[in-house]
């Protein structure tokens, strides 16, 4: 596992009008970008880009990036996750929720309304990744 780059705030390329997909620039380097307005975490790590729901699957607390950018942690009950969203330890009982994600050239499209849970739909959860 490589360490993630810097954590940044990111805004959608176009404002989200109601429900539906949001477009972002493809992250150029490893790192984490958080779009608080749309409750999306974008994470580029080791040649892959993931989009996660901002909230912990345990009790919906906003997740934080761990020190040294080694993954994510819930500040409420200390659940820890790898950069790909895999659950490591803590009170949560499953991986982070991955959001539907696609790539079109230098643009990433994420639909914050379509989340995949690893325990109820492992195939879609596993496929919710963009290779770079």
From TrEMBL:
Pfam families in alphabetical order: Rieske
Keyword presence, Oxidoreductase: no
One GO molecular-function entry: metal ion binding
Organism: Gemmatimonas phototrophica
Domain Rieske: 23-110
InterPro entries to which the protein is assigned, alphabetical: Rieske_2Fe-2S (IPR017941), Rieske_2Fe-2S_sf (IPR036922)
UniProt superkingdom: Bacteria
Positions of transmembrane segments: none
SUPFAM superfamilies: ISP domain (SSF50022)
Keywords: 2Fe-2S, Iron, Iron-sulfur, Metal-binding
Protein name per the record: Rieske domain-containing protein
